[in-house]
Amino acid sequence: MDSRTRVFGGLLLVGFLIFGIIGLVVWRGAQAVDSDSVSSLDSGSDHSDSGSDHSDSGADTALDDTATDDTATDDTATDDTATDDGTSTREGPLADFVSEAVAFIEDLRGAPFQARPVVVALSDADFIARVESVLEAEFADNPELVEQDTVVQRAIGFISPDQTSDEVLRQFLAAGVLGFYDPETKELVVRQVFELDLLTKSTIVHELTHAYDDQLFDLDRPELDDDDFTERSWTFAALAEGSASHVETAWVNVLSSREQSDLLYQESSFGDPGVFASFDFAYLLLQVSVYVEGEPYVDSLVANGGYGALDAAFEGLPLTSEQIMERDPAVDTVPVYVPVPPADGEVVWEGTGGQIVLDSLFSGTFTATEDAATGWGGDAMVVYRADGQSCMRWDIVMDSVADEEELFAGLAEWTALRGGSVSIVDGRVRLDRCA
After folding, report:
1. Residue 422's beta-bridge partner residues?
2. 342: exposed, middle or buried (C-beta count within 10 Å: 0-12, 13-18, 19+)?
């Protein structure tokens, strides 16, 4: 099962797959996504039955509005707002706004929802408890994935040798999750910190868009879990989060100037930004990258081909992060095959890092030039255990000699700060690091 999260902050908006749900995380200036249905480096999910020809599907269906924390309420529900136990309503401000948001999304995207999503508003404490319970269940069901991710993230430097990936993810999400959509239960859960303020409304619009895309394209695509040698898990997350952010931005743009200012204030006031000082900056950037890169990619698709182009992208996912990040049609984005380098220990994971991981490493340490990751042509990484350490060996091919020289110089600067070594092996740039 997939998940989407969004974080606000001093950086950018980003989407991020968490274990089991599609959520919305808020941190001052950034948005994020983590994964269950993701490779060790990338996060994403897929939609299957898509297209722009769904105008008649479910158009006459009575749209169901609200529910309790776990199941739909009966027709007698009349509460005006969410209760402490997570009951949402068929009537009142929440239901009214859901109706407005549904109409806005349908008008913008040009097709109706097949069924009205179930929306649950929870108190702050109940929402955090629910997210933590979902995470704990998924961690318990996937201990081997937690161990694999821990080794990978330690080797790259996203977490320290004494941290585990589940521990860091739990801290990250507790710092600012606003809401999530679960594509298995079809339930949208919102953290209602105050009354139905603009921040809660923007969260609902964002997550309703995930519900819309799920109904048309199927957001639950577990087949991407094992697709380690393409970046389709990450590109799917970028597409899904880009779609939701695109619609959310369109909704924000129709607000008055005063309302937009109020929304920015509410975003900046949510949570404690100091919490994020304990995370590796490159780790944060990778988590929020699907929002940062996804929204402009979707904007470009819609500008050049309308929403039909977005529908088509859900059906034929880009293979690499470069194809999302480099939107200039003149750029060569066809990846080349790179063989997996040999490991010097017990292999834990093999796959592709992609341009997005390189970009996050450089940006996260303020090393290299802005374009050091640009010109990526293909790569292969092996992560292994050796002498009690977590290690990686990453071979990268660039598009030109100049790109290779720039990457080599950037990685030399990066390893001087973070440890490891960089070399040229068989015409490929090789990064080695253990921690």
Report:
1. 431
2. exposed
